């Protein structure tokens, strides 16, 4: 099995790719801001009292 290392193409810009991350990390990156937004809304609405 060939182990591929992460290399940037010299002609292309250095960019961050979500597809290079694991599925769990991608899910966390999507759900964490949504959870924070939900908590902020709940706190502002007084639901967490």
Give the topology, please:
Elements lengths: L22 H23 L4
Model description:
The chain is an all-alpha fold and 49 residues long. It has a domain at 20-49. Helices cover 47% and strands 0% of the residues. It has one helix and no strands. It has one helix at residues 23-45. It is rod-shaped.
Radius of gyration in whole Å, from Cα?
A: 18 Å
**Individual helix count:** 1
- Rounded mean pLDDT is 77
Shape label: rod-shaped
For the sheet with most strands, the description reads: none
Give the low-pLDDT segments: none
- What class, by secondary structure content? mainly alpha
- Count all strands and give the number: 0
Strand content: under 5%
* Residues in helix, %: 40-55%
Order of helices and strands: H
Q: How far apart are the termini?
A: 55 Å
Sum up the structure in keywords.
49 residues, mainly alpha, rod-shaped
Summarize the structure.
With 49 residues, the protein is an all-alpha fold.
